[in-house]
């Protein structure tokens, strides 16, 4: 791990992947067990939904502080403690007998998980050359799909064999175990040159650096589309008359395409020596085209084919956005910068479902969903054209 050409960096990358994936396990283990918990604790649908929102609140709150801590005191402590907190709070949910206690623990779970992305970014920036960071982030960003899949499968299996409480305990123990591994194997580096970053450091860097502003808002509009698809695709497919299983099959194919896209995006850019600016502009345009194609297709077979390529394209930018953040960040302050960037990106998670839902309600046509997402995504191209130094 001492050298950027060390084979050990790939083992560390797998540990980062596990760290990132387990945060999605703690987030989504709620999904397969929610109906059982609702019945046991006499919770409404709104209350059940708030368990997911509570996690997200905590997750956003610690984005910027997490980056600051990673740069100031080091990744080893920040990442391992964050995973321990998230794991312990997840175990705590297994002990609840009231809605209020569960809600508070879900916020705490999110607080712990919120530091992970900034920590992973710092480790990647220190151990991978710029030309390899797209590949490294591509591997890391398999984490959300991996975590979601494991959470659903494991949660459902443990619910059936034991109880929902066992499912939460198991995921919590996994998070703590990975936290211990990070404490043992991650090197604890701090900001260079005696710099002591504070909560405003990352904000100042991002909003006074032209290229980081471009990445910030170019990424925001992309995430707006990404979250919009995740929120509304299943509803669209159900409105076409598909069964839940048929809709799930289409979205599974979409996810498979996404994983492949995430893994290949860095290899594509590195192999063909592509300009990142031109690459992102072309990919954004193609994503908007396939958004309209997907939203104007009604057959299950055609949607599966288009869905695969749509997923592939939609996941191409993500790793490159993170690689660009590390490229334009000052040395030793990549975590602080990523904390701010990711906080802005996550704002799309709040705005996209509400805005798109409001437009669909106002127009009475689901086609408005896909038109809105395609147009908003293209707005990101404006910021990529302003990117300098490519």
UniProtKB/TrEMBL annotation:
- List the keywords (alphabetical): Cell membrane, Membrane, Transmembrane, Transmembrane helix, Transport
This protein's record includes keyword Transmembrane helix:
yes
Task: Name a GO molecular-function annotation.
Answer: transmembrane transporter activity
For this record, the Gene Ontology CC terms, alphabetical, are:
plasma membrane
Give the matching InterPro entries: MFS, MFS_dom, MFS_Efflux_Transporters, MFS_trans_sf
Question: What residue intervals traverse the membrane?
Answer: 12-30, 42-61, 73-97, 103-124, 136-161, 167-186, 207-227, 247-269, 281-313, 333-356, 368-387
Concerning Pfam families, the annotation shows: MFS_1 (PF07690)
- Where does it reside? Cell membrane
Major facilitator superfamily (MFS) profile domain mapped to chain residues: 11-390
Quick check: keyword Magnesium in the entry? no
User: Which PANTHER family would you find in this protein's record?
Assistant: CHLORAMPHENICOL EFFLUX PUMP RV0191, PURINE EFFLUX PUMP PBUE
Q: What name has this protein been given in UniProt?
A: MFS transporter
Organism of origin is: Bilifractor porci
């Amino acid at each position: 791990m001492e050298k950027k050409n060390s084979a050990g960096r790939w083992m560390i990358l797998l540990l980062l992947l596990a760290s990132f994936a387990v945060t999605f396990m703690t987030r989504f283990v709620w999904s397969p067990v929610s109906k059982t918990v609702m019945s046991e604790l006499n919770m409404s649908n709104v209350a059940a939904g708030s368990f997911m929102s509570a996690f997200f609140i905590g997750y956003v709150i610690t984005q910027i502080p997490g980056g600051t801590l990673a740069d100031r005191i080091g990744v080893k402590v920040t990442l391992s403690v964050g995973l321990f907190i998230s794991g312990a709070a997840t175990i705590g949910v297994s002990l609840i007998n009231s809605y209020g206690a569960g809600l508070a623990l879900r916020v705490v779970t999110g607080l712990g998980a919120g530091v992970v992305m900034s920590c992973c970014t710092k480790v990647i920036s220190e151990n991978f050359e710029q030309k390899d960071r797209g590949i490294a982030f591509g591997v890391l960003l398999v984490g959300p799909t991996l975590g979601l899949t494991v959470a659903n499968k494991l949660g459902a299996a443990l619910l059936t064999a034991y109880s929902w409480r066992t499912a939460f305990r198991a995921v919590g123990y996994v998070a703590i175990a990975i936290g211990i591994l990070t404490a043992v194997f991650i090197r604890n580096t701090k900001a260079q040159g005696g710099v002591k970053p504070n909560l405003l450091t990352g904000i100042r860097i991002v909003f006074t650096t032209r290229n980081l502003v471009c990445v910030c808002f170019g990424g925001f509009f992309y995430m707006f589309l990404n979250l919009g698809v995740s929120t509304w695709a299943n509803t669209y497919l159900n409105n076409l008359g598909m069964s839940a299983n048929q809709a799930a099959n289409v979205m599974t194919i979409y996810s498979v395409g996404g994983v492949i896209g995430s893994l290949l995006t860095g290899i594509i850019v590195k192999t063909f020596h592509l300009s990142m600016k031109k690459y992102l502009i072309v990919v954004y345009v193609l994503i908007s085209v396939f958004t309209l194609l997907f939203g104007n297709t009604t057959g299950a077979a055609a949607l599966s084919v288009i869905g695969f390529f749509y997923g592939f394209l939609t996941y191409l930018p993500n790793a490159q956005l993170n690689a660009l953040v590390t490229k334009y960040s000052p040395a030793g302050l990549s975590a602080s910068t990523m904390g701010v960037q990711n906080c802005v990106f996550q704002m799309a998670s709040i705005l996209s479902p509400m805005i798109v839902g409001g437009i669909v309600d106002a127009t009475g046509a689901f086609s408005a969903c896909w038109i809105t997402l395609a147009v908003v995504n293209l707005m990101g191209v404006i910021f990529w054209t302003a990117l300098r130094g490519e």
